[in-house]
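Input record, target 12 of the design panel.
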């Protein structure tokens, strides 16, 4: 499974591509950030994020895109920019027919470190270990993008089994009512 993780942001949008399956060693295929100047017009910044993500999609051809689910912060302008960058990432994936998964920051931290309250340094250290890197990816947005991809690879099999079970249960329940 090849997953592109996206840590959305307008100034720095983290991107990381990881390949592997749950229970086996994972491989980092690429990591970086798409940057936009803070003083540029919002529409041009969103266009730059879109163009940068399209280049990553072209180069790495992921099967899934995992995006950090935007949560409310105290700074509304920050959360708005994050939400807009997140929407651009989802749009780029949808345009190509690539499934998108949203993971909360605490889900990602728990998957990678074992605790949903881990700090950025802990996440970076575990990403470094899990991907057998010589140093943590910089900036932290890049490490977070890799953590999103790892989280999805590890959680996807369980999520798929759960979705199939719910669908099967729903089908049986519906069949019972119509009989």
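The sequence produced for target 12 reads:
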């Amino acid at each position: 499974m090849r997953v592109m993780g996206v840590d959305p942001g307008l100034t720095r949008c983290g991107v990381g591509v990881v390949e592997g399956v749950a229970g086996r060693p994972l491989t980092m295929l690429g990591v970086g950030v798409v940057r936009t100047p803070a003083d540029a017009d919002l529409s041009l910044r969103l266009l730059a994020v879109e163009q940068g993500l399209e280049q990553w999609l072209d180069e790495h051809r992921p099967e899934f895109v995992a995006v950090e689910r935007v949560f409310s912060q105290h700074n509304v302008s920050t959360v708005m920019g994050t939400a807009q960058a997140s929407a651009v990432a989802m749009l780029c994936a949808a345009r190509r027919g690539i499934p998108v998964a949203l993971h909360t920051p605490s889900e990602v931290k728990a998957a990678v470190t074992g605790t949903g309250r881990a700090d950025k340094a802990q996440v970076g250290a575990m990403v470094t270990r899990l991907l057998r890197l010589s140093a943590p990816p910089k900036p932290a947005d890049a490490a977070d993008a890799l953590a999103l991809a790892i989280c999805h690879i590890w959680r996807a099999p369980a999520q798929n089994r759960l979705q199939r079970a719910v669908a099967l249960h729903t089908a049986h329940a519906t069949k019972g009512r119509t009989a």
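The CA atoms of residues 8 and 85 lie 5 Å apart.
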